[in-house]
Amino acid sequence: MSTHNLCIYNTLSRTKQPFKPIHEGHVGMYVCGPTVYGDAHLGHARPAITFDILFRYLRSLGYKVRYVRNITDVGHLEHDADSGEDKIAKKARLEELEPMEVVQHYLNTYHHDMDALNVLPPSIEPHASGHIIEQIEYIKKIIDAGYAYESKGSVYFDVEKYNRDHNYGKLSGRNIEDLISQTRALDGQDEKRNPLDFALWKKAAPEHIMHWPSPWSEGFPGWHLECSTMGTKYLGDTFDIHGGGMDLMFPHHECEIAQSVAAQGHDAVKYWMHNNMITINGKKMGKSYNNFIKLQEFFDGSHPLLQQAYSPMVIRFFILQAHYRSTVDFSNEALQAAEKALQKMLDIYQRLQTLTPADKSSVQLPDFDAKAAEAMDDDLNTPQVIAVLFEAGKIINSATDGNAQLSAEDIDKLKHLFDKYLIDIMGIRVDNNADSDNGVKAYHGAVDLLMEMRANAKANKDWTTSDLIRDRLAQLGFDVKDTKNGVEWTLR
User: Fold this and answer.
1) Are strands 198-203 and 219-221 parallel, antiparallel or unpaired?
2) Which residues, 6+ apart, have CB-to-CB distance to 439 below 8 Å?
3) To which H or E segment does residue 330 belong?
4) C-beta separation of 31 from 73 below 8 A
């Protein structure tokens, strides 16, 4: 394992701390994954890329990393964790589909988008719906410890009792008295002892599609429970890193801590890490604000807020230009600047491959590798890594223009620098990058054109042509579905 001084910001302590794994040479990392009831948008890309960088860097340091990223396919509830209609079930009901059809469709598109962004797959990707038994057993532990109670077939976590013995709010820095005064009463919540109490298990209403048997009722697990359960199942009672977006810090991660302490008697996570938000005009980008832009809309330029299409690598580079704990505000100007900067970087990389070595270097090459490593060790400072690469690029450009000479040894050092940090750690695709990105745009445009031709055929009641286009696309690996909102297509 290479020598390093990696420090990461621990949200729990609010300080940068030296990274020391619980088990030498091994790292357990859990990151909150997507809720699969809609297409991935730019807000989903940031945590995926942030923790992809951490995954890549830890592996480059020689650690064996078990990276767990969950899939929430039981579904977030419409209004909060305890009330409203499950969004996956709602979409299934409206489109007359099985809930798992909805899950699989959006999981396929999520994976496709992550592949386009060059996000590595996790070691394990467990589904909440596949761990109902484990979640029931976890609830039993919390009940046995005295921190949960059953009420009318549902089970709730007793936040006030837990706070008397421990500290509810230590991750987010919230005070329970303030939380109680700010919590509004919701319809159907009279079965709780306290408005702050959150559901571990909910009794299903007769119309609720997704439900399972339990000792308390036919129902479904609460949102917060799945991460506590699956994190400890695959990483142990104590593991190194838990990550996610800053919007999950409260209540989701706060409730996770409470559940873990209640069930196990101790904290489960050593380091909590949170990426900041992507905003549009200062407001968080997300489905709940109806201001999100789907990743596919970036790739094909179809969203009205976009002036052009942006390749997956431009989106990745745009995100990496800012530190993961800083806010990034979306604009076409920022994306165009990222596109130009990425192209300059790729030009530098290509020039590096064509350099002819001299017998001796005419310039003193700084220790760029040490500078880049120092930046990564400083809480994954990717903007500083990019600055180091551009600094090295000045020497490469000077050598290409004939104003400097580089020895074979120095050229090899520079190639190692770019291969290690630009490709392996930053995850930027450079081989035939333009061709690859143009190919992505081309196939999206071609399929969209066929969709338009099929729509025209249907409008003219030319069912033969309509069915022919659908069937030929199916043979090529495309799934075409007619929904109430129009036609959707995905590549299998």
Assistant:
1) antiparallel
2) none
3) strand 328-330
4) no
pLDDT for res 79: 36
Task: Tell whether 85 is covered by a domain.
Answer: yes
What's the domain range around 122?
7-275
How far apart are alpha carbons 55 and 126 in whole angstroms? 18
Last residue of some domain: 275, 291, 322? 275
Q: What residues contact 40, with CB distance under 8 A and at least 6 apart?
A: 34, 109, 110, 113, 114, 294, 295
Residue 466 and residue 458 in contact, taking contact as beta carbons nearer than 8 Å? yes
pLDDT along the chain (492 residues), means of 10: 83 97 97 86 93 98 97 62 62 76 88 97 96 98 98 96 95 87 59 92 87 95 95 98 96 97 97 94 70 90 92 97 95 94 96 95 97 98 98 96 96 98 96 50 68 84 86 75 60 54
Q: Which of 25, 29, 22 is nearest to 53 (CA)?
A: 29
How many CA atoms are closer than 13 Å to the CA of 99, on its beta-carbon side? 16
Length of the chain: 492
Instruction: Give the closest residue to 369 by CA, choosing from 329, 432, 306, 412.
Output: 412
Domain presence at residue 266: yes
Q: What's residue 260's pLDDT? A: 97
* Selection from 484, 487, 479 nearest residue 101 by Cα: 479
Q: Residue 103 in 3-state DSSP?
A: helix
- Do 40 and 105 fall within a single domain? yes
Helix, strand, coil fractions of the chain, as percent rounded to 5 = 50, 15, 35
Q: Answer yes or no: are the C-beta atoms of 159 and 194 closer than 8 Å.
A: yes
CA 36 – CA 114 distance, rounded (Å): 14
DSSP 8-state symbol, 184: P
- Residue 478, H or E segment: strand 478-483
Buried b (16+ CB within 10 A) or exposed e, 180-207: eeeeeeeeebebbebbbbbbbbbbbeee
d(C-alpha 204, C-alpha 83), whole Å? 11
Quote the CA–CA distance of 260 and 171 in Å, as a whole number.
13
Boundary residue ending a domain (227, 250, 275): 275
Q: Residue 292 has what pLDDT?
A: 81
Strands 278-280 and 328-330: parallel
Q: How many domains does the chain have?
A: 3
Res 1: pLDDT: 54
Indicate if 293 and 333 belong to the same structural domain. yes
pLDDT confidence of residue 237: 97
Cβ atoms 259, 81 nearer than 8 A: no
